[in-house]
Recover the amino acids of this structure.
């Protein structure tokens, strides 16, 4: 018996533990990674099929279409973020673990990004090719998508925490998160479009970085509050 | 002398229903608190409220002199939770699950082998948890509690899915825990035959 | 002073107080709106640029301003309810949401009608105000959808409070990003309500409409909150004695 005052746990260890666990779980279920990727690719293909193969149109719409597709693909994997933990009682254990809940919430958001956001970023150059976007846009696209998908994972975690266990959760989650995600979408897509026309992109990138920082600072706390409310 | 765990004036509403009002109890080292009552009387809610998962309408919970609701982290560092849902990942192996738990807390990993042997789980470490039987899974939750080395155990219906041998094992482990100076709060609609000082709270 | 606030937070006290306030707010609102409408339609001279079309600002501007004020009221009272666990605050947030959504809708409709003679189209994505009003409408929908998806009132209150606060943080960001985005859009004619210096003959009716709408909003909000309070406290003794006087006898 270690006595009444157990020492407080190491926070880095706790963060590493939850990220590791979620990555292990995603490894056991490859669909979690692959489904959003396929969705991203398919939605990006839908638009050229619908609007025609004219190069001018593709290049004009490319950044926007890719960004919307990435947004929707990231949303797709958010609904189940807390669902299994909620259903099997792991969420109770997480909340009672003496680790700060915002830290654990951040860990879950981070592993969601690693599984459902980062792959989108890595695949985006290929899709940019199909839209015949100039090579100089690829770097900007990956950078903006990185900031954007991180922000989405963080924002989306709040929505997922608020709607965990509710009927029609996915539709509701989208309704909650999409309005909040619009600034990210606007700046992301427009910045890539600016890169395509060889204009200055610094402003857009800075904005996305700033928004990402804001989300990093605030979202875990909102997610933790939402989890406590939903778990009652 | 104030007890280690002291609860005063606990009131909880679920929706419009008042589950309990003005409840008070105290618990000291080596003692067991048995929350008894029929199904639906609020035992689980009381336990969850004690753990801090549900907000009480009114009430104070003092742990070793400090307010357990306000200083949650320290309180949680000292408690281990066992409920009807096992709180483990079916896709991961027993070892992965316990390794995760020990990553969250400061645990002594070297005790693992002895614990697994005690609970007859040593041969099941490499299997995904969902291929274990319900009784075996419940024993894994016991392993988690032993590994956590917390002084206060909160247990909600710990005998579910266990046969007589399993129930005896749980009782034995709880008694050992109490004898070593630990405390346990058990919610159970079944009577508990236990060789230790027992305080009772009855919910109707 | 604190006892006053404490009293204010008590539902029966609020119920009684609001009963006295509503007629005054409604009366003031109707008078101001009546004056504003008449003056706006008949007394204010036509705009040198837009002719008579500008007159819709007398509805559009108050509606737009109230749509944002309602959101702030919703977010602030939700925050108060969440932090200080005041049930009445949650009732205010619940009552403000549908009202805010209606005013947003009104702002969008009048904005669109205004835009038609200006831009030639019923909708102009290049106008940042219109676009951010649309996003605000979605924010309201999300809030109301979340509320209705959760059965337990307490959980619904608290969850939607978190959402309202997160939304409140994002509202300025959304406005700013839409402004930046629309400034990149070529060929949009930005119609601004607070454009060049506005003459007093045009201004007074506008002020009257703004205040009048606000008073009416206040009256409507109080009425909605009264209903919310009655529903939430339906099992309390004071409600029963209020609604069932015959039963009140010992």
């Amino acid at each position: 018996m270690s006595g009444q005052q157990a020492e407080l746990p190491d926070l880095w260890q706790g963060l590493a533990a939850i990220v590791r666990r979620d990555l292990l779980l995603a490894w056991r279920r490859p669909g979690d990674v692959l489904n959003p990727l396929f969705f991203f690719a398919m939605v990006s293909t839908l638009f050229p099929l619908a609007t025609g193969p004219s190069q001018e149109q593709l290049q004009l719409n490319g950044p926007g279409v890719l960004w919307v597709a990435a947004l929707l693909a990231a949303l797709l994997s958010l609904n189940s973020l807390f669902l299994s933990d909620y259903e099997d009682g792991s969420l109770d254990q997480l909340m009672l673990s003496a680790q700060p809940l915002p830290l654990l919430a951040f860990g879950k958001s981070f592993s969601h990004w690693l599984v459902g956001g980062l792959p989108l970023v890595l695949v985006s150059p290929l899709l940019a090719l199909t839209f015949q976007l100039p090579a100089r846009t690829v770097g900007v696209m990956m950078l903006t998508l990185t900031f954007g998908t991180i922000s989405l994972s963080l924002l989306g975690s709040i929505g997922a925490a608020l709607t965990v266990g509710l009927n029609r959760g996915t539709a509701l989650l989208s309704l909650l998160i999409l309005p909040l995600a619009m600034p990210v979408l606007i700046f992301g897509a427009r910045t890539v479009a600016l890169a395509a026309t060889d204009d200055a992109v610094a402003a857009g990138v800075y904005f996305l970085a700033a928004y990402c920082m804001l989300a990093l600072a605030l979202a875990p706390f909102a997610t933790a509050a939402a989890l406590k409310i939903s778990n009652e | 002398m104030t007890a280690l765990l002291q609860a005063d004036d606990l009131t909880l509403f679920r929706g419009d229903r008042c589950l309990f009002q003005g409840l008070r109890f105290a618990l000291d080292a080596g003692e067991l608190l048995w929350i008894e009552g029929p199904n639906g009387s609020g035992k689980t809610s009381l336990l969850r409220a004690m753990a801090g998962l549900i907000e009480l309408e009114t009430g104070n919970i003092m742990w070793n002199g400090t307010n357990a609701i306000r200083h949650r982290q320290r309180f949680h560092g000292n408690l281990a939770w066992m409920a009807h849902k096992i709180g483990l990942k079916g896709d991961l192996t027993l070892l992965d699950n316990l390794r995760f738990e020990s990553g969250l807390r400061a645990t002594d990993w070297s005790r693992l082998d002895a614990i697994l042997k005690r609970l007859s789980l040593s041969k099941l470490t490499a299997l995904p948890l969902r291929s274990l039987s319900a009784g075996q899974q419940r024993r894994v939750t016991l392993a988690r509690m032993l590994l956590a080395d917390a002084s206060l155990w909160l247990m909600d219906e710990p005998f579910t899915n266990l046969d007589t041998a399993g129930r005896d094992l749980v009782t034995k482990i709880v008694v050992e825990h109490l004898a070593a100076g630990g405390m346990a709060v058990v919610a159970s609609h079944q009577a508990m035959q236990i060789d230790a000082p027992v305080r009772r709270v009855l919910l109707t | 002073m604190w006892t006053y606030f404490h009293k204010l937070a008590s539902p029966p006290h609020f119920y009684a107080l609001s009963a006295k306030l509503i007629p005054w707010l409604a009366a003031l609102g109707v008078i101001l709106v009546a004056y504003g409408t008449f003056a706006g339609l008949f007394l204010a001279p036509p705009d040198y640029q837009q002719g008579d079309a500008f007159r819709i600002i007398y509805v559009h501007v108050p509606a737009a301003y109230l749509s944002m004020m309602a959101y702030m009221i919703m977010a602030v009272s939700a925050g108060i309810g969440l932090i200080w666990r005041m049930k009445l605050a949650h009732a205010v947030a619940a009552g403000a949401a549908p009202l805010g959504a209606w005013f947003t809708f009104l702002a969008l409709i009048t904005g669109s009608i205004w835009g038609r003679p200006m831009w030639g189209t019923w909708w102009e994505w290049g106008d940042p105000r219109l676009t951010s009003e649309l996003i605000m409408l979605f924010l309201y929908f999300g809030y109301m959808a979340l509320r209705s998806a959760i059965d337990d009132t307490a959980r619904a209150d608290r969850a939607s409070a978190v959402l309202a606060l997160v939304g409140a943080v994002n509202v300025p960001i959304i406005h700013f990003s839409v402004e930046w985005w629309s400034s990149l859009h070529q060929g949009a004619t930005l119609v601004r309500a607070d454009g060049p210096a506005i003459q007093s003959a045009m201004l007074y009716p506008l002020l009257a409409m703004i205040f009048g709408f606000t008073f009416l909003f206040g009256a409507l909000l109080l009425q909605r909150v009264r209903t919310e309070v009655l529903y939430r406290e339906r099992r309390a003794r004071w409600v029963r004695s209020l609604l069932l006087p015959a039963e009140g006898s010992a």
